[in-house]
Amino acid sequence: MAQETQNHTLSVSGWAAYDSSGEIKPYTFKRRENGVNDVTIKVLYCGICHTDLHYAKNDWGITMYPVVPGHEITGVVIKVGCNAGKFKIGDRVGVGCLAASCLKCEFCADSQENYCDQMQFTYNGIFWDGSITYGGYSNVIVADYRYVVRIPENLPMDSVAPLLCAGITVFSPLKDNGMLGSPGKKMGVVGLGGLGHVAVKFGKAFGHHVTVLSTSPSKETEAKGRLGADDFIVSTNSQQMQAGKRSLDFILDTVSAQHSLGPILELLKVDGTLVMVGAPDQPLELPSFPLIFGKRSVKGSMTGGMRDTQEMMDLCGKHNITCDVEVIAPDTINEAMDRLAKNDVRYRFVIDIAGRISNI
Ligand code: NAP
Ligand code: ZN
Fold it and tell me: Origin, by domain of life (predicted)?
């Protein structure tokens, strides 16, 4: 049973995983009525992030079933609370990973709400009123306006949806590590999936030389063609890996499964940085030699704050950057998730929640 509180009376149709089989089935549940700080959004599209798969299958052991996944949400505002006047009915908006934070700590004050220790996610979180949060695999979402961004008018609502998680998750570490406004760096992207393909597009838009490190030789043509990557290294090919040693300034690792960081670190120049954004359920192998011999750093990054999310969205509007998506109907979510688990997507599934293929 969905947890309900007094004002949770808004009936919503959605799709949920009920157990660790991960199978997604229809689910009707209640959301809170639109509060003073809320906007109610008719959901049009929702991307399928690999994180949704981790949660649906309880990979990380923290799933509260039934879980309604989805944190790459685009839609249209249909109701506005009295404090949420920066939005109006009909606005094209997006909701990403964040549903709530304390709004008082140093991180919230600096719009790094993603690092607030009371931060709650859009799904599988606990909202301020004690209710469990449900994500975008549903026809309506009620969101606090402080965690809602505007979608530029020139961008289509389906292929923009993955920017709300995949986009900001790769934008934020690029910005944090001086890769924005300093073109000409050598950048590596490990794993060419949902996150990775956006990272390649951002890297090119920001003027860098981008090398993809992939386990899938079949992705090379597209990576270098449509996505604009400069180089492609098959990470299981030791000769190619050897040839790439000490060539990169910065690496973003987006891989969803366990792997060794050792050979990847060897590709960094001395003093280079690898940022891990992938979230495998098992610890990664991190040998000391490539770290100490190259004075290299490894750090992590989790999604991004709201100011950066809007900045990224506006930049995408300016440069016309969207994601490469395969739009699916809600009744094929399970097939899409199976294909995502098998690394068979170019490069993001997006659910046509409102049953429309055209853009608004
Ligand atoms: P995805 O679309 O499945 O892409 C992951 C890519 O990793 C695959 O396309 C594949 O690329 C590579 N890969 C898969 N299995 C591999 C293996 N066994 N060994 C080596 N490479 C493998 O997933 P995604 O949606 O981009 O998400 C990636 C990861 O980031 C997930 O763990 C997700 O939970 C996490 N994530 C983190 C954040 C954050 O805030 N830090 C936000 C969103 C997602 P190749 O075929 O090119 O090798
Ligand atoms: Zn995500």
Answer: Eukaryota
What is the Å distance from ligand 1's center to 350 Cα? Answer: 16
First-residue to last-residue Cα distance in the chain: 34
Task: Report which bound ligand comes closest to the CA of 96.
Answer: 2
DSSP secondary structure string for all residues of 19-66: STT--EEEEEEEEPPP-TTEEEEEEEEEE--HHHHHHHTTTTS---SS
Q: Which atom of ligand 1 is nearest to the CA of 303?
A: 40
Phi, psi (5° rounding) for residue 80? -130, 125
Q: pLDDT tens digits for the chain (360 residues)? A: 344 456 899 999 999 999 999 999 999 999 999 999 999 999 999 999 999 999 999 999 999 999 999 999 999 999 999 999 999 999 999 999 999 999 999 999 999 999 999 999 999 999 988 899 999 999 999 999 999 999 999 999 999 999 999 999 999 999 999 999 999 999 999 999 999 999 999 999 999 999 999 999 999 999 999 999 999 999 999 999 999 999 999 999 999 999 999 999 999 999 999 999 999 999 999 999 999 999 999 999 999 999 999 999 999 999 999 999 999 999 999 999 999 999 999 999 999 999 854 444
Q: Which residue has its alpha carbon closest to ligand 1 atom 12?
A: 191
Output the CA torsion sign for 323, 329, 330, 334. negative
Q: Is the CB of 259 under 6 A from ligand 1?
A: yes
Ligand 1 proximity of 336 Cβ (cutoff 6 Å)? no
Measured in degrees and rounded to the nearest 5, phi and psi for residue 78 equal: -120, -10
- 194 ligand 1 Cβ < 6 A: yes
Beta bridge partners, 324, equal none
pTM > 0.85:
yes
The HSE-up count of residue 344 (CA atoms within 13 Å, CB side) is: 7
Domains in the chain, ordered, with CATH? 10-165+322-352 (3.90.180.10), 166-300 (3.40.50.720)
